Give the backbone structure.
Amino acid sequence: MIAPLVATRARILAARDTAEGREKSVRRRLGAAWGLLLLNVIGYTGLIVHVPSIVGKAITQGSLPLALLLLLSVNRRVVVRPNVFLCLVTLLPLEAVMTALNPQFLGTVYRTVRLAEFVAALWLLSPWFGRRDLLLLRYHLTALGVVISSVILGLLVAPGTALGSGRLVGAIWGTPSTQIAHYCAIVIGIVVILWACGQMRGRLTVFTVVVASAVLVLTHTRTALTGLIAGIVVASLSLIDRYVRVRKMIATAIVVVSIAVVTASSFILSWLARGENSEGLRNLTGRTKVWGPLLALPRDRFQEIFGFGLSNSSFNGLPIDSNWLSSYLEQGLFGVTVCGLILLFLLVAAFFRPTGVQRALALFLVTYCLVASFTEDGFTDATPYMMDLAVAASLLLPPLMAYRPDP
């Protein structure tokens, strides 16, 4: 009697160990794939050690197909979880394909293929949307932490290169100051909300917020700061009736801001001005000088509705720095409408979700992307903003029990 029971127990333990090992392997591959997707959207602008541009671009652009291979190794049967967010996102590459088939826009084919690959990767990740353990959010937080750590390391190794322009940039991996500020703002917001909901320790939260805030200040980026404040305010208001810690945090923030305005108003105004004159502030650091000619560009009916095809989000050699105008140029009124529907759907979905950490995190991410979309290139193409919104969508989907894409 004892021998069969021992054998049965041994088989159960072996099966459990096998399942745990498989789960760890899946998690490692998912985390690596998410990191590769972020590497793909960061792009390449140079390294502290000279590397030929073609090699650097091959690293970033090659990370996308490698991420697809990793995801296919996990999701072998290509099981996807239908959801409205990814259906809306899929409209962007579909429209880009239609534009690229037009003979005069054949130069956009390569970018269209890469966007289609990126959206396909998001579909392969969809079975892990809605998990209670916030799996994709934690991978996103880890990947952003690695990028910020490389920026800090570059500041320590080559401070002249990192701060040579007066604004912190990536010295090891050439990351622009606006992107660094974006990553810092997302990390700060996520960590603060996790702490407010009791899912992160206080010491770790303080350390992360202090380091990321210092990096954000050194970038002198107003858009990221504005989006961070707006996102935290909206997320906190969604939690204020449930968590005492949130109410105390809001009260403390009001006191701190009041004291800062009274005692350090001149420093704050100087930091916000960034040495610009009134003309620079009025034209948003030269952005409106690009926006006016872009809107005045002659278009036929097809170009007005479907745009000129995917590009590097520039006009006459100058960056557009606006999601909506970039969408209008590349994908016309169709692209602008799809972008608006993506944000609207996520906000409506958050409204119908129960109060909690997932809803608050999603509201923070969507609010930040909405604020930043007016002065930063956004989510028409494969960008960090699209990854932010994908994480928000994963937080808003309800969990599925025993949803296993790979037996």
